[in-house]
Amino acid sequence: PDAQRAKIQADTVCYARAVREREWPAMADGKGSPAPSVWSTDLRRVFREVEGKPVFGMLVSADHKRSEEREERLTQATASIPSAILWFLLATLVITVAALGVCLPRRNNRGQIITLTVITALLTTTLCIIRDVDRPFGGIIDVDPTAITEVQRQATRDFLAHHKAAELPCDDKGDRRPS
User: Fold this and answer.
1) pTM of the model
2) What domain range is 68 assigned to?
3) Are residues 70 and 7 in the same domain?
């Protein structure tokens, strides 16, 4: 129905904005944001209005898929290697390099110093890569919100085809506008 369609389209735009502008930056720190949940709840309220109609099953299925994908995204944002382990590996590296440095001969040691420097750089780089890969939403290997940006663009286009931008219940960052 038209009334529910407009509400679902508006909530979808706001959800996409909230994910892109609020949740994505929070995921760089391994956290989520409550902002998208506001719009998920709104969507489910509208779904109750169309319960029993042919479109209901499709909407619930799509919402379930959206929810699963959000959970997966949040799981990926959470570091699987605890910080204590990374600090332990770093301390082990420092102790190992220091011990090897003490064991180097005092003279004619240019080759050993170069080798120790290269090994230290490689092991340090390896630790940095492990940390960065474990946190894909921030750092050097940064997953951009490309797909959600496209969803937001399409949802906004679909909404604006029949409504004014002022009718959206959220601002550009996905926050609810004051009533």
Assistant:
1) 0.79
2) 2-79+144-167
3) yes
